[in-house]
Fold this sequence. Notes:
Structural class: mainly beta
Oligomer: single chain
Amino acid sequence: xxxxxxxxxxxxxxxxxxxxxxxxxxxxxxxxxxxxxxxxxxxxxxxxxxxxxxxxxxxxxxxxxxxxxxxxxxxxxxxxxxxxxxxxxxxxxxxxxxxxxxxxxxxxxxxxxxxxxxxxxxxxxxxxxxxxxxxxxxxxxxxxxxxxxxxxxxxxxxxxxxxxxxxxxxxxxxxxxxxxxxxxxxxxxxxxxxxxxxxxxxxxxxxxxxxxxxxxxxxxxxxxxxxxxxxxxxxxxxxxxxxxxxxxxxxxxxxxxxxxxxxxxxxxxxxxxxxxxxxxxxxxxxxxxxxxxxxxxxxxxxxxxxxxxxxxxxxxxxxxxxxxxxxxxxxxxxxxxxxxxxxxxxxxxxxxxxxxxxxxxxxxxxxxxxxxxxxxxxxxxxxxxxxxxxxxxxxxxxxxxxxxxxxxxxxxxxxxxxxxxxxxxxxxxxxxxxxxxxxxxxxxxxxxxxxxxxxxx
Length: 457
């Protein structure tokens, strides 16, 4: 120490320099949140500085709360504790946290089917089929095994596999995937079971139908169907149609077909095809036939009237009248047959004329016309024998043989009756009467009176 006068004095002391300042951490990386199952970021030692020590010792300690299973396997905290110590033993610490969390729901792959269509077998007897619906290969998540639960609404116990028998129709099957953390996702698969089984068409083996009075007939599919059926579609919902196969230009199948007189010969088997379609559009067919009959008899619109005629009259239909008729189809012929019978009194004969009307199917309608033939003109003798007188002792000669003609009868029989009448006592008191008779009551009378015989007509 020196004063103002320049006087100096000295003394000695000991100074100890110590480092008591701990190292200083540069700002750490921010705390981090990492998705479970993602790769953890590399842990980088922080920068540390110290006022004295250029080579600070840095130690890192890692502590994790992760469990071996369950929720804690995917959700935990990692604590990074850094300790920096300088050569003087001064130390400082810094802490950084990394949170590992499972926030992502299970993922259904885009390749997973969204629609599965199954057709029933061609020969199926039931209206259902098996659909393979297994989404196991299409589900992924950080959680695995028992830590990932999958169920479905069709077969809940099947998990991600909803394979099973489904009824006909559309089924929306929901798959629910939930991990142990509670993350959940849903996927929908539409399962469509379609009817691939054709109906069974059953035809009646041959039918017949009769024309109506209009000359035509319309038949429907019901007349050919013999209880056709389907495995899925109820009978009332089946579409039944028929088609004629004998036309030059086939018409589209329809509910009915028509026939007319040209088809009604009663023997031709007109081929018919029956179409049976279910609600899925499956179709089957069978073939049969129909015979068209004409059972409508002709109608006689006018039958000639009965009449009384002379035997000399013209008996032909041109004079006595002709029957007329109509038919639902065609009148094939109008004919007649005549039958004669003996009459009574002035009716010498009765002509029964039966009119017969046939149609194209040989249906017959008849009517009867009666012609009463009368004879009002007596026969005429070919000669009139003169009256004669003979002696009572003479032998009476044989009667003359007479003939007669008639306007109606060709051969007129002539008969005679001889009778003797006593008009006085003795051999000569007699009259011989010869009576000639022919049809028509024309008489010839012969008489003998006393010794004479008078021949009278």
